[in-house]
Amino acid sequence: IGKKDGENMVHSFSYIGVPDRFKIIIVTSDGETIVSENIIERKAFKSKVYFDYNTKKLKETSIVLAYIMQFLATYPATLLIESLILILFGFSLKKNWKSFVLINLITQILLTFIIFGAMYKQGSMAAIFFYIPFEIIILIIEAKLFKKYLLEHSESRRVAFAIVANIVSFLIGAAAMIFLPELYF
Fold this sequence. Notes:
With 185 residues, the chain is an alpha+beta fold. It is built from five helices and eight strands; from the N terminus they run E-E-E-E-E-E-E-E-H-H-H-H-H.
């Protein structure tokens, strides 16, 4: 049962349980069964699929749009979480904002690109499989970059910040994926 949105009915399904390849079947209140004519092969975590009831055709939104939407959800959240940790580690956001924003921009683009690439080529299970190992690679990259480009404190403190910031943002992101899947998927 969906929710009415103007002329449309909106049905939401979270990431867990939605296959990479599917059709839509609708059973009306009077028992009529309608099956979509084409098959969708999901290419993004946060897929939006439209079903035209009259033509019985399915259409998925653009992978580029899905990539951008995923990035726009994760990048600001990462900046917020990691900037709070930066401050807690005693760094000045004012002195370090350029390198902080740029390093996170580059690594977030890489992470989103890798996860979407895995999803597009090999499906959602591959994306999950690549997620944790690539997060570890991101942690190493950021530790090296923050060690070099943060302006205050010792190198070991810069590395410690990078490790803690990445672990905390990963854990919060993973929790959000589990408990708030509509934000991601």
